[in-house]
Amino acid sequence: MAATDHPRGSYYAASANPFAALPPLTGEIVADVCVVGGGFTGLSAALHLAERGYKVVLLEGAKIGWGASGRNGGQINTGLRKSPVDLIASYGLERAKALFGLAEEARGMIRERVARHQIACDLKSGTMLAASKQRDLAWMQDEIDSLENQIGYHQARLLDRAETRRIIGSDLYHGAISDEGGGHLHPLNYALGLAQAAIAASASLHEQSKVTRIDNAATGHVVHTGEGQVRCTYVVLGCNAYLGGLEPRIAGKIMPIANYIIGTEPLSEAEAKDLIANDACVCDTKFVVSYYRLSADRRLLFGGGETYSFTPPVDIPGFVRPFMLRVYPQLARKRIDYGWGGMLAITMNRLPHMGRIGNLFYAQGYSGQGVAVTGIAGKLIAEAVSGTAERFDVFAGLKHQTFPGGTLLRHPLLVLAMLWYAMRDRL
After folding, report:
1. pTM of the model
2. Which residue of 236, 252, 304, 326 lies most exposed, with the fewest beta carbons within 10 A?
3. What sequence ranges are listed for the domain Rhodanese (predicted)?
4. For the structural domain made of 125-184+257-341, what CATH number should be given?
């Protein structure tokens, strides 16, 4: 895959809204803020900063939405990767409620941005967390109780096996949490819509402008690309799994992992309703999760399986299809029209890693919850740049461990862990 292309075989790229190519950076620009990365984090930061009156330059090494923001499952889930029970146990009720509240604000921001900027991204409501094991139902009920009684969230309910089977046309699950507060969307079109909004707010966006290094200067930073540079007071890193070695001081806090999705041929209205009757998105409770939803043109978009290499399978549809058929054997005769993949980033504690080093701000490691949380990350960074860091510090104050082995050995160690948990899933 060329670094300048959207992933081949991607349903999202094939159904993307028109978006004119943006010019690469050439020469020198002076700005207040340079944002590195044209995904959800960078676009949100650029938009919020531009709305506050800052002169903003955003640099994307490939195309807007090229990374995880334009390739993911499109699921807008509740809260963070850690459950409210775990958040309360780890950080206390007050901090847990603050973290959950910011995650909820992030979901509201998506609806507000889509409405205000008229972003055509197939936004729909509803999520389902499907119980892969009978014993999952106990902690699911505990989670709902905690949401209602301690957090004050009342949109989730526990379904029994029969009701789950009625909504999700599969015999695989023992029950599910149905959550009307969540939803799903076309992530690449949402990213392109945010980019258009940022441009309208006077941010300057550049594609094909890979950042090669960031130097400290007496008056701030100098951000270099192959053909230009930006002199600025503040830098925002929104690179996530594609950070590479650009900022070694934070690279070891995240682990890039691979993620693959397939898209079926369009289904009839009746076939689609038999798969997901309420048109919600679905994720299961396995360690190596399967996640899926229906597209606007009634394709099943299904992500699943695990790989332990950064090199994608030669045949992505052939790799993911068996996982889909385990859930929906009735799709055995359906054609697979799309198959694509990319990288996301996880942290050791599965919570977002946000912080600052002087006037360099960063947010990364969303651990599968990035569709919504990236938006609040950009907003909080804009607040902190403006001098109000109280809300930013709710996330920035979380302690994050470096992956064992640093950037050299973290991947082999993760492979061992993934093999163990994958084996447990199968047993």
Report:
1. 0.94
2. 326
3. 19-75
4. 3.30.9.10
